[in-house]
Design brief:
about 260 residues, alpha+beta, about 15% strand
């Protein structure tokens, strides 16, 4: 099913009936990836891989007792049955994320040396479309790791512009999407550059609410205001220009993506 090598849809349904799989309704491919935090730790504990697979297997089966589940290497593949009331219904994504987060927490309590990452493909109604959802779940995993780390839960449909950037392999081409004002800040080589970048990113994530930004950064409100003024002085950035702010948001994500790839 996930490889797309389906010679006969009828044969698939017949085999599904034999093993008790119900393919009526809509499904989304969901991938659980086991990320080990340290290769050295793996060598010290030879049973870590077996134990992590066992725990993830048990947790998924516990929360999805009737799920269609398989595993391959350090991946668990789930064909997750979803309830869709209309084409634009996305409540099922929240339901998957909630269950996936619970599974992550259960695993973390028992084994702290691994992170379980989750990628969610789009919901499909036809068996022939399952391979596409599976590829999307893989893309969500890859990009989710780059953007949000090894314990991220990422839905392909929520990646927005990064679904396009995912297929741009030339770093110099990606740099073209970083606006001039943000490049000025990135080129600012003083010691407090990282503070300014973090403040700008948090400020935008807080819908340009300086008080909320100060709260999240655990600094005084006046410190945030001062940093924002420094950003304006260095870059000429206009926080009232919605289009520029959208470009800066995208630019910050691209910068983060490139930095992670550089580290890897």
């Amino acid at each position: 099913l996930i490889s797309g090598k389906i010679q006969s849809i009828q044969a698939v349904y017949e085999k599904a009936n034999v093993i008790g799989w119900d393919f009526s309704g809509a499904f989304a491919a969901v991938l659980f990836k086991i990320n080990r935090q340290s290769d050295g730790m793996l060598q010290q504990k030879g049973d870590l891989a077996d134990r992590s697979h066992f725990l993830v297997h048990e947790a998924i089966h516990h929360y999805l007792p009737n799920g269609i589940i398989s595993n391959k290497s350090n991946f668990f593949i789930v064909l997750w049955k979803v309830e869709k009331t209309c084409k634009n219904d996305t409540d099922w994504i929240d339901d998957i994320k909630k269950t996936a987060r619970t599974i992550q927490e259960v695993i973390k309590k028992q084994l702290k040396d691994i992170d379980v990452q989750v990628g969610i493909g789009c919901a499909v109604s036809e068996i022939s479309e399952i391979p596409q959802s599976y590829r999307e779940a893989h893309d969500a995993l890859d990009l989710g790791e780059t953007l949000n780390g090894l314990a991220s839960i990422t839905a392909f449909s929520e990646l927005g512009i990064f679904r396009l950037l995912r297929h741009v392999n030339d770093s110099s081409a990606l740099l073209q999407f970083i606006p001039k004002s943000l490049k000025e800040l990135l080129d600012y080589q003083q010691a407090n550059q990282s503070d300014l970048l973090e403040t700008l990113q948090t400020f935008l994530e807080c819908n340009q609410n300086a008080a909320q930004t100060a709260k999240l950064l655990f600094v005084h409100y006046k410190t945030v205001v001062y940093r924002l003024e420094r950003i304006k002085e260095i870059t000429g950035m206009d926080f009232d220009d919605s289009e520029e702010m959208l470009s800066v948001r995208v630019g910050l994500k691209i910068y983060e993506l490139l930095q992670r790839e550089k580290q890897e």
